[in-house]
What does this fold into?
Amino acid sequence: MASVPFPAVKPTGRSYTPGAYPTAEFKSLSGVTTRMLYGNRRSDAELSLEFGNITDTNAALILRNYEQVTPTGDWVSFTSATGSLGAASPLATYLQESGGSGLRWRYAEAPQVSSVFPGRSTVRVTFVGQLDAA
It folds into this structure.
């Protein structure tokens, strides 16, 4: 399993959720709540990207990336020239998950492609950031 770079296509919109730390809460009969933290790293982050009105050639690059990554168990990597393009440096570190989080971006579902007009499409992709056992 290895990192596969995401194509250098600029997103027109994005949504990011940093994931959560593994915790459990227990409530006693007296109403006291105890919170147990089971790890020191986040998991299940989500990143949704939209590529509005891009060429069909760029849409095909995204579909090809999906085909490269998914059957092999590889993960997607982002750089400042890809998924985090347009985000300021501090935020881009989170979007890339390059700050030592250990999360690896994988496709949560197949990309959705909508035709805008001949030769132009809008593509929506959703990724989930997961920790690997390795």
Summary: Residues 3-131 form one domain. The helical segments are 56-69, 89-96. The first strand starts at residue 3 and ends at 5. Residues 104 and 115 are 30 Å apart (CA to CA).
